[in-house]
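Supplementary Note 2. Why include the ligand at all?

Several targets in our set were suspected to adopt different conformations when bound, so apo predictions alone were not considered sufficient. For every target with a known small-molecule partner we therefore ran a joint prediction. The input for 2-OXO-4-methylpentanoic acid is given below.
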Amino acid sequence: MQITIERIPDNELKPLYQDPSQLGFGKIFTDYMFTMYYQKGKGWVEPKIGKYRPINIDPAAVVLHYSQEIFEGLKAYAAEDGRILLFRPEENAKRMYESAERLCMAPFPIDYFLESVTALVNLEKRWIPRAPGTALYIRPSLIGTGDALGVHPASEYLFFIILTPVGAYFKEGFKPISLYVEDYYIRAAVGGVGNAKTGGNYAASLLAAAKAQEKGFSQVLWLDAREKRFIEEVGAMNIFFVFGKKLVTPDLSGSILPGITRKSVIELARSLGYTVEERPISIEEVFDGIKDGSLTESFGSGTAAVISPVGSLNFKGENHLINDFKVGPVTEELYTRLVNLQYGKTEDPFGWVKEIGRL
Ligand code: PLP
Ligand code: COI
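The joint prediction is reproduced in token form.
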């Protein structure tokens, strides 16, 4: 792929953020973006890195009416020795390919995904923050464009990548969060699109999340659509429950997002001697475990949130504390090991970390 680069004159570049500890999540964007178009009969054309700017699409574009949209989320990390690292980017490329197939979109080729991310991040490396816990968040998106209102897949597509330097996803940082167990609204059902990373899943989750936040909870913990009994995932994370040396996480039933952090935590935990069970886990099993003391910790996992301890679950008006709302040793250990891998602080026996350039 031959990427055209449209340089911005130095005096027109944005000023860098001042204080990396104030970054938050996804509030400022870098100077450049990557774009590439899919045209019927031609395939993927015009790979370009140019100025971050509004995109021009027809008001009849399929994405605007029927939500034919998917996205990904990954991070570029600055290692202390100057390497620029990605964490399992081919997994994001593959998941995006699968999301595209589910949404009947022209899939973006896996090698193009890796090449475009690498090129854009290297060009924008001045934006990769160095402070602990910060990273450059990479947001690739694919949208159905074209100009016809019939309900059918778009004839044209736009793939684009934008970048945002980020700190912690939750304002709490690495501190326990409180979750609201949603017993009315659902996020997704088996057979739907819950396992694809498509915007509609997030739109569908907003009302429940807003209500939970009004009541003071960080995010919603979703239950299964059929029985409202089995745990699915959190707003932007998969979830784990710790029973001593055993971890339990909901299996990929078809309605939850197959998280790359989830997959990594499972492999990492197994390598450390933990037993990991991927299986249905009901809300009663969780509350029984809290009551009899066998459930010792819980945490969420995701790219944006990394590993986030869960301190309490509120269900039907009752609050259930986990580990006295403290960070537990298993959560702490997995968090530290994962972050050390991502920032290139420790040897990577798994082959997960990919150096794409130098600062
Ligand atoms: N579940 C949902 C709904 C998410 O939005 C995310 C974030 O991407 C995850 C789980 C975790 O996925 P990953 O670990 O690949 O970031
Ligand atoms: C991520 O963790 O990458 C996410 O996409 C979560 C959220 C910001 C949608």
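The chain has a mean pLDDT of 97. Residues 177-342 form a domain with the D-amino Acid Aminotransferase; Chain A, domain 2 fold (CATH 3.20.10.10). Comparable summaries for the other entries are listed in the accompanying table.
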